[in-house]
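Hi F.,

I've been meaning to write this up properly since the lab meeting, where we talked about keeping a consistent format for the predictions we share between groups. The idea is simple: the sequence comes first, exactly as it goes in, then the structure tokens exactly as they come out, then a line or two of notes. No screenshots and no reformatting. I'm using this chain as the first example so we have something concrete to point to.
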Amino acid sequence: MSEFFSNLNLLQILLVTIGYLMPIPLAIWALRLWHHYRQERFIMGIKWVLLEVQVPRDVIKSPAAMELILSNAFYQKSKKGFWEQYIQGAPWFWFSLEMASIDGKVHFFIRSPTRMRDLVETQIYAQYPQAKVVEVDDYTLHVPQYRKDGDWNMWGCEFNKMKEDFLPIRTYHDMAEMESGTKEEFKIDPITPVIEFLGSLPRGQQVWIQIIIRQNVKEYHSHHTGKHVDFYEAGREFMFEILKPYTRVQKNDAGDEPTGMDVRTPTPVANLIKVVTENISLIHFDCCIRLVTLSNKHLCTEEQFNNLRRNSRLIWRQYAQPNINELNRINSTQFDAPWSDPTGLALTKYKKRTLNFFRQRIGFHPPIQYSFEYPKILSAFFPSGSPKIFVMSSRELATIFHFPGMVSETPSFKRIESKIAKPPANLPQ
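Output, unedited:
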């Protein structure tokens, strides 16, 4: 009997303890919901503009010109205090760099907040004075919302880095043929395969690519301090972990304090450390990459659409460094096994979500219902999960998104004749 009362006392203590501690997680969740609510209200007030960049015919610059544009126009470095984040709900501004093939005609677009439009235009004209930047309607709204029995086939996916963010993909800097001063006929532009593929699409097919970027604010968990650190601190910790097996710490006889350190790094590891060191010294952006393929059922067969879907998955293959890093396909709108979605309802919902995310350029601030991972049994009815965010340097971004030079002769790529001697005179001073 005494054991019963002792267990009862323990149960009472446990219930009282839970009652006292429960407000803590509830307060954390309430703060998160409030933060999300304030951000959504702020974002609803942002006005956007979609700009098409029409490239001149005689572009002879390397992707380094786009790297300067990224650094000067899109890197909106700032810090936000409690008032800005939780009271005003102000997010860090983001931009969308887009390539689209519509019936085989290739276009370059940049979506920007209207308040940043002048800065974006002036930086483009600074590097490409003979280009033409015009405001256009949103091309994504010309296709109806996906329906299972509709007139359009649709497939989409996202991409992220296969390995750690600190490891770069292959960039134009790794290709000697893209260095400044190289004759145009000897250049090998890494974006040319993408442009050629987009320009080869027949009438009735479309491929949309978007790269959503903002200044790097992603945080990492430090295994040394247990705190959250920024990209550069996490990158240094990542290098120390790589060198740890090849490092010998020398200690004196009097105490445990190290007196020296001897690092004997094998050549392959030394090369990797050199790559990481060079990469973390650059400017970095948080990124979300998304791809959507569309095919009109009245103009293209099911086989043509399947070929388009398969080919689109390999669109970034030329940027892969298998021993270092590469872009990996994730969140595809497909199921590998027929029993994963016997009714087809889940696939339809996933496709609608992907298309809506592309149209709204959602990357860093998804709606509240997509901010949590639901159990798999519920995911068939309520697609969940935020877009995957990873980090790329300005050099990596300039490699996968830049205006192709004269080396690209794709006939369907829209260029303008080089008759504009200087940028428009009405740009802001």
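Notes:
Residues 23-44 form the longest helix (22 residues).
The chain has a mean pLDDT of 82.

If this format works for you, I'll send the rest the same way.

G.
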